[in-house]
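Work Package 3 (structural annotation) set out to generate three-dimensional models for the target panel prioritized at the project kickoff. During this period the team completed the workflow that converts sequence records into discrete structure tokens, so that structures can be stored uniformly alongside our sequence database. As a representative example, we reproduce one entry of 393 residues exactly as it appears in the project archive.
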Amino acid sequence: MKRSRFARRTKQTPDTEALIHCATQLSLSGSRLEDAFWEHRLQGIIDRLLRGQDEAALNAALDHLYASGGRAYDELADLVESCAESHHHPLAGSGAGQDVLLFAAPVLAWSRYAIPSGTINAELLAMLRVQLQAHVFAADVHFGLADFMFSPDQLPQSYCETAALREKLAKAALHGRDTRLDPVQMPETMNFLSDTRYLIGVVCAASGAPLFRWQETDGSRNEALKQWRNQGGEVLRGLLPACAFDALLPQSFHAAIREADRASRPYSLRSAVAFLQTTLNVPAANLRAVVAPYYDRQLEEYRIGFTLGDTVEVIHGVVWPLLEHEDEAVDLPGQIEAVLREAGVREVMVLDHRFPLEYCDDCGAPLYPNPEGEPVHAELPEAEEEAMPRHLH
């Protein structure tokens, strides 16, 4: 999840000023004990703002610290994310209480048809619980899932929304139960050739106890991922018919979203090559890729247009967005070219002049670079276009 923030005028309140002060002091701290002091103070303010749905105060502090530079922004952003996705629930009559964590299990998928999202039936939900308990979570946890396969459009869009979802799921998860969500209240999902789907839930454990399998003495993060892909993948197949997919490691909500954002970029390129090979019945070596940078106020993304051989018509396109801490100094064209060549594309043309961040006036689709250095609409041959989602990604 990209953390870059656009400059905007925000009014500083006493809460905003307190956040800025504590985050700045935390960034200057010289000991773990002082860290703990400022973190505790910050967490108290953040928790109160999240409960009060005061997103504006959080964003005002983050905007100010982002513009100022330095470590204070990252310190505050990390703590806001942590408070939104996790909480300590005291238990009546017990001093220990329970730590609860909102988690996500991302799945990268591509299909010529619409990638499913929406309500998960009870049988598949029960099977997912079995696989998560066996391969992902520690032995003594309670957890609960939302009975919904989320698309990116349906994820919480703010810290306060994230905290509210965590609290809603935690009420059931503390008792090892799942939560039913009303699909009518969910935003619509846009259809892309390649996209991400998410299982979301809350996991609970006694304070200080392990939450995940790899926190146990005989556990391994790599082994957990391997087993989740192999065993959990068989269950996910029932949720994603007619799709190729790759399950990523379930982990804390914001870390999972960021990992999915990173992994989805090369996955989208490989998916595009595979799609064009199967749809047009051509080898990858017959495709040409044109890579170009697209700017708004700054470099925002690279777009890749695909052509057949030496033709100039762009038949498909992929967006490679910039993520946190990436800018023009990062060799993203080199990374893109490496993925394309690994997928079998022999001819990769990298353009170095700036393209404006433009979209089609009629359908809103991105405009992609052609070999002549022009931003154009991607158009499949007419015989193949009817089988495609409206929006290409």
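Residues 1-7, 389-393 have pLDDT under 50 and may be disordered.
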